[in-house]
């Protein structure tokens, strides 16, 4: 990051990075001057310095360095209380092992990448990738299948860019328990529906796609009170939609900057460091909700009045939902949630809308609200000025 222009302002979570590295603000992003060549050049210098140090020590290759603990020594010149206790003798002693014990790389690691589920998806979605034709699939999934949909998304992004494909061009329904990072970086035009459950990092970096997760049919438990998706779901999502009939683990929608999602409940630290997008929660949240939240909006159904105890008020305000545009946004998203998931919570809210609406709390960052109000006032002033000019011209 330093090579790409970071000046360590420690504002990564505030969306105000002055050099455009860690921000979604289009004006600030114009200040970003980093290039891939800068990183390449940096690592060339790192490699050159390593080569020089190796030459000083008498090594020609990295392999020659393995096990040469005789070239290491403890730096006694460090004058700090933390350096007085550690015993590093075990690190400076070469273990005596037989020839059958490998102490360095002896064979290539088989990552199993050739057999990942996404390769199958890419083959079956060729007509969509090449010609934009609709594709619909149904497949089983296991927790061994990680980052499902990511390689497929890379093909879409490579061919169509950030615009992706029209919504729902590729629709894939999975049944089972998905592994980590299900739908990570999912491109626009892809809809993944999972009937089952998902592990951590679902929808990480969501980039315009749609993810729907529902419990299996005829379950004996209450989905509204059961964890359906794991921790850190929708981390760093930039665009897209998510509908989840159940609850999430901790850190749901952390650093979300553009996705619109609905869920029936979350664990601790929900919407942490969020900078954009809209999150609707039709149930309880965990502790420390909205910590470091600098943008976006969250709507929380607070039926028992305990949400204020769990909301971090450091950067946000709690409001009643009364503006017509807020009511429209909230209702539209809940209707979509019911349409995709058949959530009982969503149905209950919609069936008694006038009674349930006052129980929603809108969470919005103070500075974000101020900026939107200033922008709205500026647009109104500009519009009034144009109207006066038209009148004056007769």
Radius of gyration: 26 Å
Percent helix range: 25-40%
Q: Please, how many helices?
A: 11
Name the CATH superfamily assignment of the domain at 130-379: Glutamate synthase, alpha subunit, C-terminal domain
CATH architecture assignment name of the domain at 130-379: 3 Solenoid
Mean pLDDT: 94
Secondary structural class: alpha/beta
Got a strand count? 11
Question: What are the secondary-structure elements, in order, as H or E?
Answer: HHHHHEHEEEEEEEEHEHHHEH
Shape: globular
Biggest beta sheet summary? 11 strands, mixed
Q: Which fold does the CATH topology of the domain at 130-379 refer to?
A: Pectate Lyase C-like
Task: Tell me what the structure shows.
Helix content is 30%, strand content 20%. With 394 residues, it is of the alpha/beta class. Strands 1, 2, 3, 4, 5, 6, 7, 8, 9, 10 and 11 form an eleven-stranded mixed β-sheet that branches. Helix 4 crosses helix 6 (150-160) and helix 8 packs across helix 9 (344-351). The radius of gyration is 26 Å and the shape is globular. The mean pLDDT is 94.
């Amino acid at each position: 990051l330093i090579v790409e222009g970071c000046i360590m302002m420690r504002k990564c979570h505030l969306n105000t990075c002055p050099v455009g590295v860690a921000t979604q603000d289009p004006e600030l992003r114009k200040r970003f001057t980093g290039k891939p060549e800068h990183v390449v050049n940096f690592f060339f210098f790192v490699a050159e310095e390593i080569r020089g140090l190796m030459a000083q020590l008498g090594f020609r290759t990295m392999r020659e360095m393995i096990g040469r603990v005789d070239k290491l020594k403890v730096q006694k010149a460090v004058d700090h209380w933390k350096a007085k206790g550690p015993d590093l003798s075990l690190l400076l002693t070469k273990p005596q092992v037989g020839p059958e014990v490998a102490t360095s790389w002896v064979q290539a690691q088989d990552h199993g990448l050739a057999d990942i589920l996404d390769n199958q998806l890419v083959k079956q979605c060729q007509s969509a990738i090449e010609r934009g034709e609709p594709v619909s699939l149904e497949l089983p999934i296991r927790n061994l299948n990680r980052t499902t949909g990511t390689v497929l998304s890379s093909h879409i992004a490579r061919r169509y860019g950030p615009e992706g494909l029209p919504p729902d061009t590729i629709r894939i329904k999975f049944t089972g328990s998905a592994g980590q990072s299900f739908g990570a970086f999912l491109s626009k035009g892809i809809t993944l529906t999972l009937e089952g459950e998902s592990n951590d990092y679902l929808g990480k970096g969501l980039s315009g796609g749609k993810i729907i997760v529902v419990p299996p049919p005829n379950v004996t438990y209450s989905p509204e009170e059961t964890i359906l998706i794991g921790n850190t779901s929708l981390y760093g999502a930039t665009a897209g939609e998510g509908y989840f009939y159940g609850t999430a683990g901790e850190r749901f929608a952390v650093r979300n900057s553009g996705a619109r999602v609905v869920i029936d409940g979350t664990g601790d630290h929900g919407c942490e460091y969020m900078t954009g997008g809209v999150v609707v929660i039709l149930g309880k949240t965990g502790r420390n909700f909205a910590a470091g939240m600098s943008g976006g909006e969250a709507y929380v159904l607070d039926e028992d009045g305990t949400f204020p105890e769990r909301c971090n008020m450091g950067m946000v305000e709690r409001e009643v939902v009364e503006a017509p545009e807020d009511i429209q946004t909230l209702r539209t998203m809940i209707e979509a949630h019911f349409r995709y998931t058949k959530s009982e919570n969503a149905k209950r809210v919609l069936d008694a809308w006038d009674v349930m609406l006052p129980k929603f709390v809108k969470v919005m960052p103070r500075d974000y609200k101020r900026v939107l109000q200033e922008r709205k006032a500026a647009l109104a002033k500009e519009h009034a000025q144009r109207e006066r000019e038209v009148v004056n011209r007769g």
